[in-house]
Amino acid sequence: MTPPDPRPATEPFPTSPDGTAEPPVEAVPEPEVPLLTEPADGVPEVVSTPEALEATIAALVAGTGPLAVDAERAHGFRYSQRAYLIQLRRAGAGTHLVDPIAFGTPADLSALGDALADAEWVVHAASQDLPCLFEVGLVPRTLFDTELAARLLGYPRVALGTMIEEFFGVRLLKEHSASDWSTRPLPPEWLTYAALDVELLVELRDKLADELVRTGKDAWARQEFAALVAGAGTAPEKRTDPWRRTSGIHKVRTRRGLGYVAELWYARDDIAQRLDRAPGKILPDAAISEIAAAPTPGRASMRQIPAFSRRQAKRYESTWVEALETVGSRGETGLPPLHIPNDGPPQPRLWAARDPEAAARLTAVREALSTKAAELDLPVENLLTPDHVRRLAWRPPQPVTEESVDAALAASGARAWQRELTVPLITPLLLPPEPAAG
């Protein structure tokens, strides 16, 4: 039984010091940040013909100042990471939306890139977009990455929409960021979203550039931007046994089970590449791990897993069965090892047991870098890449000197500004411990 409420049916207003009743003060809601729904100059027509591209090149070359650049991919829908729409904006030239798919596969937009090579390109999260821009011949000589600039300035949230709201008091449309940009024709509302992504990008660059100068971080940023440009055309290093990153693989406990994962993964990858479909759209990772962990992988057990019965996966049932049978007929020598050797240091949680001195070095170096990063109002991972720190602490160069530590970090890719700030700080912490007295 619910006990009676001891309060009166109607709460009286609280009283003021003189005993008179005062009505409650209503909370004032925060004003809603206005939504930026349309570009100032409207949404341009998509550039999809040689004649339109020539006009775009002429307009952008006649423009002035930095060039805002963005690209839309179809991550999660397509196998490739190619650009399916490229947005460009420059003062005096307006915004231009270029459909690279209309210019071949792969597209050749090098004429556009060459014409604009002398401009400073402004990109948000350049490491994500530069590979697909490079693929179509759009290669900057100088770059300003607004996301990286915001990180160097210590902003806790650096998404484009967040930064635009921070500096300009308006919100960007973001509901189409995960859309399938390979769709044709592109819906009008998607084109609006795309155009807005570069609407204020140069203005954001100017605000951040001023802050970089004021805080003395502009030289750091220039080095970081130059490194991005230098690495734009570098192919990513191929991962050994990429199938070992399959979701759910931790449930597979045997070498033969890992063989099933590998064979299915490569069969799926071949299909996905031929169809230009995201592998997960063909067959989810979880289904691969589940059948590999089954007591008797085969057609019967496969049909008990719902993902294999979905239309896309069902089309390739014979491929999956063939992969399972191939592994089932292999001898032990043809099966992958449970673990592969790692040329880098082990996971830090294992250091204390394997090498207590290395564990102590890592702790000391991490603490020193965290303190320094806080002083600089900088994320510690931007002060020095965590992988560089782990490798250095696990096996320091011999002998340990500032020169040898600087050389080791330079070989790992650390920039000059990072080494200048960190080498004198961490070198003493990498020295072997003093022998105990007596």
TrEMBL record:
In terms of superkingdom, the source organism counts as Bacteria
For the protein in the UniProt heading, the enzyme class is hydrolase
| Enzyme Commission number(s) of this protein | 3.1.13.5
User: Which InterPro entries does the protein's record reference?
Assistant: 3'-5'_exonuclease_dom (IPR002562), Exo_C (IPR041605), HRDC-like_sf (IPR010997), HRDC_dom (IPR002121), HRDC_dom_sf (IPR044876), RNase_D-like (IPR051086), RNaseH-like_sf (IPR012337), RNaseH_sf (IPR036397)
Q: Does the keyword DNA-binding apply?
A: no
Key words of the record: Hydrolase
| Annotated Low complexity bias | 20-33
Say yes or no: keyword Endoplasmic reticulum present.
no
Give the molecular function GO annotations.
ribonuclease D activity
Annotated region described as Disordered, given as residue ranges: 1-33
- PROSITE patterns this protein is in? HRDC
Pfam families linked: DNA_pol_A_exo1, DNA_pol_A_exoN, HRDC
Sequence ranges of Pro residues compositional bias: 1-15
Q: Which positions fall inside the HRDC domain?
A: 254-334
Task: Tell me which Gene3D superfamilies the record gives.
Answer: HRDC domain, Ribonuclease H-like superfamily/Ribonuclease H
Q: What is this protein called?
A: Ribonuclease D
